[in-house]
Known about the structure:
about 350 residues; alpha/beta; Nucleotidyltransferase, domain 5; 5-stranded mixed sheet; 12 helices; binds 5'-O-[(R)-(carboxyoxy)(hydroxy)phosphoryl]adenosine; binds zinc ion
Amino acid sequence: MTDNKDVYILAIESSCDETAAAVVKNGREVLSNVISSQIALHTLYGGVVPEIASRKHIEKINQVIDQALKEADVTFDTIDAIAVTYGPGLVGALLVGVSSAKALAFGLKKPLIGVHHIEGHISANFIENKELEPPFICLVVSGGHSHLVKVKDYGEYEILGRTRDDAAGEAFDKVARAIGLGYPGGPKIDKVSREGNPDAIHFPRAKVGESEYDFSFSGLKSAVLNYLNSCQMKGEEINQADVAASFQKAVVDVLVDHSISAVKKYGFDKFAIAGGVASNSHLREAMEKACAENKIDFYHPSPIYCTDNAAMIGVAAYYEYIKGVRHGYDLNAVPNLRLGERI
Ligand code: KG4
Ligand code: ZN
């Protein structure tokens, strides 16, 4: 490869309940982004069923890859490297993507690049914000993770805070289930909250010991459940929209508070959000306002790049590719892979 040749990466993502493939050119241009969502299937069970997720991935993966190449109008010949999420996530689900990527890399004799799922979420910010470069602070909030991260450079991270218990998205999903909204809870709470009063019920904003930037959402979830129980015992009807809006405000207040104080303390002027919960409209509005008040440039991906997708994996892989990172044919799924850890 010559220095000035364009780099095309075929990326695969299957860590949870979306089977996804994308073609990304030079790390910032998404030529295709195909997502086959299993949400409707898992909704029947009120959450993701790991074995069903794996089985659905194996059924869909080749069609999704084929579609990604077609939509990008390229063939395998154009592709310079195959990228895949290898952790964290559901092991059976990850294995489908990893096996596919390994088979392709082996058969086509192309380099293989394993990508950390959270690194993918952070990198989603590079797609539409062409001017964004590290360093910056990023809040990653998804169904499985809540991390406040210092992005020191491409692929170099320092975790400033993380959840001690439930992830933010998990709290949305559990509270939604408790108030009868069903799965996935995040988008449903987001929507119904528009009709509710966020100050109707005061739910606690958790403080976590001495660690300034850690989060805890299980106490908030219990407070919502206790409130629902006590209403039921008193025979009072609950106002679903008020509960949703008040819960959402409690989550958003903590996320905004921690994020802005970290950006200020570490002297940054750029802040980004990522992950499924980053598509929450109230969170985006509140962050936008807080950043404007504190003269911080605020970045966020479009909702389609917030929830799981393969384009973000292709972006992260590009920066690994140009550094010369390559994985061997012994690449495995690592369900608990830590951010910044290289295996
Ligand atoms: O990033 P993601 O697609 O998967 C993981 O890596 O976990 O995030 C999924 C999570 C779910 O918990 C879902 O309820 C939440 O993101 N979510 C939202 C919204 N859209 C998705 N949470 C709050 N508001 C939303 N609009
Ligand atoms: Zn995710």
